[in-house]
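Please decode residue identities from the backbone states below.
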């Protein structure tokens, strides 16, 4: 039997579309074919297999058991073929669109992306700050940098790191109350983002019973970069990640007054569709950022962090 008859790719592609949509007409629209041509390809495939694939009922198409057995593997086969075609191309004259959680975008990616672009000068990068979870079926993103517990089963997820955090504030604000010597002293200052679970974790591991922070509502921010900006302006004390604010700590614009820090189950993740794991531009960025974040954590993270259980 000729290979083209043993593996009728055109007919298999039509079958996959019909089985996925449950409709000859919608499959025809997707493939740019007539319904007659779709029906012909399905009859051709059924003749080769000796099995009926669809039950034609009024106003609907129902998969037979044979079709249900075939569909998962046929779908995977076309994903692999698409991946093979993409991997054969080179990273050049393309745009890599990255959707990132806001603080990581502004306080790490924006400061380090230039190094990636020096390695891949023909690859343009479009970076967007997003707070919601990227839907790769709807959004044009190639990659999502996601802050959360993870992983997410629908996509390929790569943990880049879990960052330590501690209370940080401007030196002038610390001096305004004569300095800080114990964790309790923090309660004499405005607490920024007091509703965040990380505050409770830090106080608990510092040996202080969970304080009542309900009165600290003036700076009720969620995003860490907003909390950090308020702390830099001297409006209060924020709980911040060392890797995001390493430069501010090194220059003395912020201080972390206590030799105590935490980490938890929340991490920063690189996420992309599983079917595109070997796309050259995604593979190149994944390899670069994994090494870059690891090197930056080695440089900025205090050690050893205290692990808190949630």
């Amino acid at each position: 039997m000729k290979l083209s008859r043993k593996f009728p790719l055109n007919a298999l592609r039509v079958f996959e579309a019909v089985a996925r949509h449950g409709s000859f007409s919608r499959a025809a629209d997707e493939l740019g074919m007539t319904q007659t041509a779709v029906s012909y390809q399905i009859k051709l495939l059924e003749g080769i297999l000796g099995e009926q694939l669809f039950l034609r009922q009024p106003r609907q198409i129902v998969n037979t058991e044979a079709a249900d057995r075939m569909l998962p593997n046929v779908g995977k086969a076309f994903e692999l073929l698409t991946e093979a075609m993409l991997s054969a191309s080179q990273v050049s004259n393309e745009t890599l669109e990255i959707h990132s959680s806001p603080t990581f975008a502004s306080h790490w990616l924006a400061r380090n992306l230039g190094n990636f672009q020096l390695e891949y000068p023909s690859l343009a990068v479009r970076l967007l700050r997003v707070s919601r979870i990227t839907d790769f079926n709807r959004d044009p993103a190639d990659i999502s940098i996601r802050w959360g517990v993870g992983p997410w089963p629908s996509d390929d997820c790569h943990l880049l790191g879990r960052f330590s955090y501690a209370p940080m504030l401007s030196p002038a604000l610390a001096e305004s109350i004569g300095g800080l010597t114990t964790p309790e002293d923090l309660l004499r200052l405005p607490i920024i983002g007091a509703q965040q679970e990380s505050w409770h974790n830090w106080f608990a591991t510092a040996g202080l019973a969970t304080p009542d922070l309900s009165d600290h509502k003036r700076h009720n921010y969620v995003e860490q970069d907003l909390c950090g900006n308020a702390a830099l302006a001297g409006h209060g004390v924020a709980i911040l990640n060392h890797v995001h604010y390493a430069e501010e700590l090194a220059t003395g614009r912020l201080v972390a007054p206590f030799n105590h820090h935490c980490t938890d189950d929340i991490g920063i993740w690189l996420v992309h569709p599983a079917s595109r794991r070997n796309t050259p531009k995604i593979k190149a960025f994944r390899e670069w950022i994994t090494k870059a974040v690891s090197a930056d954590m080695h440089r900025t993270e205090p050690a050893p962090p205290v692990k808190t259980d949630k």
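Observation: Residues 165-260 form a domain with the D-Maltodextrin-Binding Protein; domain 2 fold (CATH 3.40.190.10).
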